[in-house]
Amino acid sequence: MAIKKRAAEMKETWETILKRVVLPPKSAEEIFEAAVRRTRKVSSNLRTLQEIKRTEEKRVISASKYVSNLLKQVALRSPFIEDLHPFYRELVEVNIDVDEYKLCLARVYTTSRLVAKIGREEAKKIVFSVTMKEARTARRRFFGRLKSLLDELEPCLQKLRETFRELKKIPDINPEVFSLIIAGAPNVGKSSLLKALTRAKPEIREYPFTTKQLIIGHLELGTQRIQVIDTPGLLDR
């Protein structure tokens, strides 16, 4: 079953893979503020110790679930390099630092689990607290620890956002389809040839290096569908 699942994943288009991605928020502060906003939805018109304990517990659980689930989605819905088709695996390895990418995904997932664990711990302390001050202190302690974890994660969140921007530049190429690669020196008419052969509309200028990434077009020859790939100019001699 595992082999079949992996084989199915390798047949997915690049577009499908990227659609699953959950882009990290712009900053750790944005995640923290969103978590805090969720606690404001919990009633604050409280009088008894039990009411305060229940409310503080709900605030901690609500915030921890939100942050933990968000980070988990970021980690688990990102492309796993080993599951990619060999063609895309090599293409990704050319465009990003794979080791750093894997490390950041691991840190995001680990932080997700830590947030959930801390949330459970502080919620339990709230339940067993004997004073209002003790319950509120546990809630404040949770948010303090949450803020620290997210601040430590900030570099990885930024790195993943940058990585996903680079991954989105990779075109949706079907490695199983017969392909024609147009390669050559800059400004020799590669993009013009692509436009003449296919319905693709590449940018064409009189100066070199207009094409900065792979551009895909398709050509029908009888029943044969051919994938035509325009490439940036080569300087190697």
Short characterization:
This protein has 237 residues and is mainly alpha-helical. 59% of the residues lie in helices and 8% in strands.
CATH architecture of the largest domain: Up-down Bundle
Taken in chain order, the helices and strands follow as: HHHHHHHEHEE
Distance between the termini: 48 Å
Our Rg estimate from Cα atoms comes to: 25 Å
Basic shape = elongated
Helix segment tally: 8
Return the CATH topology of the largest domain.
Answer: Four Helix Bundle (Hemerythrin (Met), subunit A)
Strand order of the largest sheet: 1-3-2
> What average pLDDT do the residues reach?
83
Question: Given this structure, which CATH class of the largest domain is correct?
Answer: Mainly Alpha
Number of domains: 2
By secondary-structure content and strand pairing, the structural class works out as mainly alpha
